[in-house]
Amino acid sequence: MQAWVNKLWYQGHPLRFLLWPLSLLFAVITGVRRQLFKFGLKQATKLPVPVIIVGNITVGGSGKTPMVIYLIELLRKQGFKPGVISRGYGVEIEGVRAVRPDDLAMNVGDEPAMIVARTQVPMVVGAKRVDAAQKLLSEFDVDIIISDDGLQHYQLGRNIELVILDGERGLGNGMLLPAGPLREGAWRLQSVDQVIVNGVTNSTTATFANEQSMQLQPTKWLPVSATSEACSPTANDELVAMAGIGNPQRFFNSLIEQGYQVSQTQAFDDHSRYSESVLDELASGRLLVMTEKDAVKCRDFAKDNWWYLAVDAKLSSSFDKQLLAKINKLVADK
Q: Which residues contact 103 (CB under 8 A, 6 or more apart)?
């Protein structure tokens, strides 16, 4: 399904024109909703601490999770106590709930499980982000909130908006859902604080006055199984690579660019659930490598020859300075 959608949104499939009337209806509905908040007919909830939105205007993965982790580490170095809220995409959550480091991805969502496993940050998930934020403030010692996604969740008041854009894919065909990948029009990028472009841009990707560059840098191989004592992959090993993220090819390309021998690749739909038997058959005795987001869904049944490649987001020092200056001003004003 994801492969077909990619053809529609990113490869110029003619069916997009047949879906245009639905995109027009989507534009009307979402536009009316924005106006209700703009003119005060619906009220956004303001919180007593600064709120940073890490979102996008496109559907699918663009690098939000590494960016959230980057912000957590940056803020902690400056003495802040960040907390995170998220929808918990792909899972049914009754109300809101805190995420523990040992929570299964199937119960709290892929990204929340990964973020907490990596950082142990206080985090609450739920469909109503305002309720999640209030629970976060009432139960944890946090002084700044990062919202993983939620750019279009206008009920949640925000102080800083950061939009992550996939440099390779850009805005796709530039059309709104369902004919294209956009949740909001490209005009929305002019009103956010920063447009953070993940990776190298292609020739069709527009540039923005408020643009910053982000690179995902591989750090090290880690075993998916906590009890594995096997040796980590080397350039001489035959690898089978799998990925169930928004843009699997990005992961596959990164392995090849690092000089690894990738004999087979397998792309899964974003947020796919995995079984031991399927992945064991895919590996067929070879080293199976995956992303960190995939690994959190496999850690309870992983084999010794399964590995994931941890990556860190890298941004410029100017981005850090601009962001921290605005946060410090917000704190002073509050």
A: 112, 113, 116
